[in-house]
């Protein structure tokens, strides 16, 4: 963090030249009230669900929320495209420069072909049984191929197949994804609800309600007697960087397990927090203090309009800062790093994004730390 009174110098293209004391910066200095930061990196979003803004009420709990998402996706395609475009513009105007965007359709392709934002597309696979594992992988590979055809000279776009969640991926499907994603950045929704652990420990729990909507009458997953993450993480050993998203109900023993497993098996684990989505759905925040205590690599995401009031990383920072006892757990400087350089490293764009290092083109964002709003300056 630069000292108070410093001046950021960029060229006309937004490439950082240097940071100087104000006395050495010469004329033409622009001053702003608030915090200047590099552009934000939103590590978890579902842009394709933007049409669900204000459709699913807050406070339903995760299982009811998922049931609503599954049953409320048949919207007019024109409306879907309009809402995707508005959401992309909102993120850009709020100073977001890169997004880890999770979805299972190619609905966002048109908007991304014109966007100024960098996109890491996570094409999420859903495959409940081993019998259909290869068929489902082939389908989602076709979605990935459609997104891979996007040509945008203004921004970089990357694509990878990823598992949706431990409650939607069969053992064979996990193995196939592991084989197909060597050294790639992938993501997975992790431990958003206690029922996720119960599913693997006993084969029962509230997820059976979701399965019935999908035509699955009992849990298709192996009963391991272990927590969810202890049951699925061992399928991965291929040099992946894995974003664990949400982690709302992750306990300390599982944090220790994941870090030890990753170190022994050549994985890089990233813990992605989406606090406003957690508050929207469950009115609960993940154990941020434990992640800090165990020196986890933390990043931030907004999730989608189906589960958030806005798509603003500044608002996510504000939600964390409003947490009782926040100042005893983390500093504002740490959280700003989660939103910028940590996210850039997670998505492997830290060579150009994430900090005001000389030669980078990270964007410049202005934050109002009272109302936790933000806007793009460069």
Q: What percentage of residues falls in helices of 4 or more residues?
A: 25-40%
Note the run of SSEs as H and E. Answer: EEEEHHEHEHEHEHHHEHEHHEHHHHEE
> In what order do the strands lie side by side in the largest sheet?
4-5-6-7
**Shape, per Cα inertia axes:** globular
Radius of gyration: 21 Å
Write a brief structural summary:
This protein is an alpha/beta fold. The chain has 15 helices and 13 strands.
Model description:
It is globular, with a radius of gyration of 21 Å. It has 378 residues and is α/β, with parallel strands linked by helices. The model has no long low-confidence stretch (mean pLDDT 95). The protein has helices spanning 62-71, 77-93, 109-112, 133-148, 171-180, 194-202, 207-213, 228-232, 252-265, 275-281, 288-293, 313-321, 326-329, 332-339, 341-346, and strands at residues 6-10, 16-21, 35-38, 40-45, 96-103, 118-125, 157-163, 185-190, 241-246, 268-273, 298-300, 364-368, 373-376. Helix 1 packs parallel to helix 7 (207-213). The longest helix has 17 residues, at 77-93. The protein contains 15 helices and 13 strands. The strands form four sheets. Strands 4-5-6-7 form a four-stranded parallel β-sheet. A four-stranded parallel β-sheet has the order 8-9-10-11.
